[in-house]
Every structure is written in C-alpha cells, then in structure tokens.
UniProtKB/TrEMBL annotation:
<protein>
    <recommendedName>
        <fullName>Homoserine kinase</fullName>
        <ecNumber>2.7.1.39</ecNumber>
    </recommendedName>
</protein>
<keyword id="KW-0028">Amino-acid biosynthesis</keyword>
<feature type="domain" description="GHMP kinase C-terminal">
    <location>
        <begin position="209"/>
        <end position="273"/>
    </location>
</feature>
<comment type="pathway">
    <text>Amino-acid biosynthesis; L-threonine biosynthesis; L-threonine from L-aspartate: step 4/5.</text>
</comment>
<dbReference type="InterPro" id="IPR000870">
    <property type="entry name" value="Homoserine_kinase"/>
</dbReference>
<dbReference type="GO" id="GO:0004413">
    <property type="term" value="F:homoserine kinase activity"/>
</dbReference>
<dbReference type="Pfam" id="PF00288">
    <property type="entry name" value="GHMP_kinases_N"/>
</dbReference>
<keyword id="KW-0547">Nucleotide-binding</keyword>
<keyword id="KW-0067">ATP-binding</keyword>
<dbReference type="InterPro" id="IPR020568">
    <property type="entry name" value="Ribosomal_Su5_D2-typ_SF"/>
</dbReference>
<keyword id="KW-0808">Transferase</keyword>
<dbReference type="GO" id="GO:0005524">
    <property type="term" value="F:ATP binding"/>
</dbReference>
<comment type="function">
    <text>Catalyzes the ATP-dependent phosphorylation of L-homoserine to L-homoserine phosphate.</text>
</comment>
<keyword id="KW-0963">Cytoplasm</keyword>
<dbReference type="Pfam" id="PF08544">
    <property type="entry name" value="GHMP_kinases_C"/>
</dbReference>
<dbReference type="InterPro" id="IPR036554">
    <property type="entry name" value="GHMP_kinase_C_sf"/>
</dbReference>
<keyword id="KW-0418">Kinase</keyword>
Length: 293
C-alpha cells in the first residue's frame, strides 16, 4: 500500500496555443503515497517549495488524492505523502499540475487503477481549470488539448526530430491567477485569426520536425502582450534567444519563465537569455530540457 511515481514538469501555450498546447519536459518531481490504518495525515516536502508548500489538508496533491478517492467511493485512509520537487515552483513549468497529477495517479495506482488516463485527465483538468499542463503531465510528449462537453480530448505528438528547450528561470514567482487577471475578456478578430494560424503552424512544425517554422509559429497576440508587463525584460530575453540561434521563443505557461526551442547551442542560448534578464535587473538561472516521452 505504497507507491512511488515521477511526474514531469510541463510548458504550456508555446506562444499561440493558449490553454491548448503543452509539452512534457525532462524535469521531474518524485511523489510517494502510502496508505495506512491510522487516521493520521503526514506530508513531507523536500526540494523546491520545501519552505512554502502546505503540509496540511490544504496541500493540492493531497486534495487531488481525496478527489480521486471520493470519485471511486473509496474510504479515506490515513496517509503519508512524500514529495521531492525539482520543478521550479510558480514559475510557469507546471508545478501545480504536477502535484495534482501526482496525487491522482498515485491514488489510482493504490486503489487498483480503476480509472483510465482519460478519466484522470478530465478530473485533473477540472481541478486545474485548463488542460495544457495536466495533459502532458499525464501522457508525456507534445499534447494538443481540446475541451468539449466537459471532457478533454488530447492528441499526443512525438516530434520526429530532436528538440531542446532552453528555459530561463527568473528568481521571482508569478501566480497563474495573477497572470490570468491581466488578460482581456475579449480580443479583436484579427488577433484571434493571428493565433489560429500560428497554432496550426506550430502543430504542423511539431508533427513534421520542420522547426524553421517555429519563429513565426511561436508568435502570440492572446496573452503574451498583456503579460509582458509582469516579466521585466521579456521582449529582450525572447529576442536574445532568437539572436543566439533559437528557432523560436515564448513565455512558458503563465510565466515568468521564458523558453526557447533549438536543436543545438543550447547552453549559449541559455546564457544569452540569462544575460538579457540581468540587463533588465532580473537574476535568472537556466535549464536545458528535452521532451519527456
Ligand atoms: N494556459 C495557462 C495560462 C497555463 O497561460 O494561464 C498556466 O500554466
């Protein structure tokens, strides 16, 4: 009655695919769930969020465990949760999605795997509010996600050519809630058309490996123009990545991480992004990741 799993971090949106496209990345949180007879709840957190993640009933991974148990009408046992986190917290790399998915997947395994990945995805999407981080955390790869009649339809793509993701991680956090509050309720038709065409091109580039299209395919008018006020130096860092040879670059999820795609010179691109952040008064570190499959 104990299970240990690994859940990947994820980058959502990739520019134009707001709330629709997400990629699983090779950075992982370890999650161990044990059910026991006593009614005690023990939560231990190490690594990222050691000081800040709640270790009581408010813990979102624990909440996800409860959601799954209730869904399958299972009694609520005492439990111990051990989290070792490597995904940077509240930075736009899917740390909350990873916690939710970890809780759901672990609880499902401990109770006989009665729910399918599709069912886990639907529960996870309803908890998180959007599917583009939870879907790749469950399925791996690049995922195209469509919400329809209360369910999430997910197409998983494994690009045919290697792709690296260079992530510049600034030393401040940004909540998804705050980053969604700056978005307009309505957008001009031309901006919607701008994003529809680019997210189609983006999907095509992932399917074919024709990454030269990523420069155009990663432009966005639905969220990045509004969010750039929250990330000092954002246009400069995105530009620096491109000038250093990246195919394209974007805000990772709701930010504040910025992400660039390339197939070589990743360390150089990362250094240029970190330097551009520094020139704007922001200290950042860099991670080079690939697609978790
Ligand atoms: N699509 C979401 C957003 C991702 O941009 O708000 C948040 O991680």
């Amino acid at each position: 009655n104990s299970v240990m799993i690994q859940i990947p971090g994820t980058t959502a949106n990739c520019g134009p695919g707001f709330d629709a496209i997400g990629i699983a990345c090779t950075v992982y949180n370890d999650f161990e769930l044990t059910f026991h007879d006593s009614s005690r709840l023990v939560i231990e957190v190490d690594g990222e969020g050691k000081e800040t993640i709640p270790t009581d009933e408010k813990n979102i991974a624990y909440q996800a465990v409860l959601d799954l148990l209730r869904k399958i009408n299972h009694q609520i046992p005492g439990m111990t949760i051990k989290m070792f986190n490597r995904i940077p917290l509240s930075r736009g790399l899917g740390s909350s999605a990873a916690a939710i998915v970890a809780g759901l997947v672990a609880a499902n395994e401990l109770t006989g795997q009665s729910l399918s990945k599709q069912q886990l995805l639907d529960i996870a999407t309803s908890i998180e509010g959007h599917p583009d981080n939870v879907a790749p955390a469950i399925y791996g790869g690049v995922t195209i996600n469509v919400c329809r009649d209360g369910a999430t339809e997910c197409l998983r793509i494994i690009p045919p050519k290697p792709l690296l993701m260079v992530v510049a991680v600034p030393d401040f956090i940004l909540s998804t809630k705050a980053a969604r509050q700056v978005l307009p309720k309505q957008v001009p038709l031309q901006d919607a058309v701008f994003n529809v065409s680019r997210s189609a091109l983006l999907t095509g580039a992932f399917c074919t490996g024709e990454y030269r299209h990523l420069s155009a395919a990663m432009d966005d008018r639905l969220h990045q123009p509004y969010r750039q006020q929250l990330v000092p130096g954002m246009p400069e860092v995105l530009r620096a990545a491109f000038d250093a040879g990246a195919f394209g670059s974007a805000l990772s999820g709701a930010g504040p991480c910025l992400i660039a795609f390339c197939d070589q010179n990743a360390d150089h691109i990362g250094q240029c992004m970190v330097d551009a952040f520094q020139a704007n008064g922001i200290t950042a570190s860099c991670m080079v990741l690939s697609i978790d499959t």
